[in-house]
Amino acid sequence: xxxxxxxxxxxxxxxxxxxxxxxxxxxxxxxxxxxxxxxxxxxxxxxxxxxxxxxxxxxxxxxxxxxxxxxxxxxxxxxxxxxxxxxxxxxxxxxxxxxxxxxxxxxxxxxxxxxxxxxxxxxxxxxxxxxxxxxxxxxxxxxxxxxxxx
Amino acid sequence: xxxxxxxxxxxxxxxxxxxxxxxxxxxxxxxxxxxxxxxxxxxxxxxxxxxxxxxxxxxxxxxxxxxxxxxxxxxxxxxxxxxxxxxxxxxxxxxxxxxxxxxxxxxxxxxxxxxxxxxxxxxxxxxxxxxxxxxxxxxxxxxxxxxxxxxxxxxxxxxxxxxxxxxxxxxxxxxxxxxxxxxxxxxxxxxxxxxxxxxxxxxxxxxxxxxxxxxxxxxxxxxxxxxxxxxxxxxxxxxxxxxxxxxxxxxxxxxxxxxxxxxxxxxxxxxxxxxxxxxxxxxxxxxxxxxxxxxxxxxxxxxxxxxxxxxxxxxxxxxxxxxxxxxxxxxxxxxxxxxxxxxxxxxxxx
Lengths: 150, 350
Known about the structure:
Chain A is mainly β. Helix content of chain A is 8%, strand content 29%. At the A-B interface, strand 4, strand 5 and strand 6 of A face helix 6 of B.
């Protein structure tokens, strides 16, 4: 590119505030309290994280129930070079984790030293951040299950 | 149903278009395609575009590009925040209503100033997923591992898809990844988003595509061999990754059935497959056998211009039909994480 091209930084902002409502808000409040909530669907299965409607039947969802804080990795990908925006400082694994008591897996990071420590089907548990604000990153990540509460 | 055909198209794709804005590089394409069939903007009944503010980094970014059409006196137009293939669908519906006989459709983006794989995180769930910024490669990698571990596909098959795409792309002047590579060499690549290797991942490009649709006799007047749209349908899967089976595509299967893919022999297919794994899922969902030539253009693995790649699949398929390279083709467009949305179009020559 030639030197006479004008370059300027562009910071994209969407300065809106949204209310999260009883279901998503309920889940996020649970995170602040270090508690995991799932939504009961009409077929009896439990979805975590919960949505305000059933994504397959479009029925409204109202009932939240507490579920486990450990579960099983259903798939994963090693992130050897975390992207700058991601809330993970060290290399980690992206994983879908199906928590005990839930029927659908959720996306988060698994905090292990290298890809050799990862496998589909491995048991992991939540590691909470000490300061929680009602945000998905209140979960610092998952770690291999030890049996101790995170 | 009213007979509607693709009668002309033009495209440009480059690794990065540095010193031209979107409107600057779209104007010549719009002019070129209109001139190729002897139409001016005032002869066009409806104009529809597809682009994304998230890639342009600017609200209502499409408005400036409309200026490129020459919209004076005022024109009838619309825009979708989707790949241009969905703009084509809207135009097809408009033509079905019978009030207009021609439509101009375009899709474009210039993703090179940012990091597309990261920008695509903003299409994820805004509360549970987007704040973690999973990049698009990582999300597809999660699906890829499930396919591999379920034994649905293996690395050899994925490398064969990647190698064939490169061979096809080498013959396409619009492709940006045009170096051939053997299956063996691709198998030897170090993973980029484990288990995906660099050749499993599409080659990002800047650019756009413009298509003209015409109905009935107007199409026959303007083209020696129009590519008739015999079926077109689009469907969507759930947004939440956790409730989907990422190893298959229910929405692509339904769209394919509704568009009539299996009603007759398919000569070739142009599929929007930003990953080799996407191509595997799509060929299964659409029931395309080994006798169907997949992505003779090289597909998105050869050049992936976000917001235009789906429309380019339709343009590539239509151009081959119009040239007489085949009589019946499937064109597919996709959008969203792990091909959440799918549009399928069946094109035929007369």
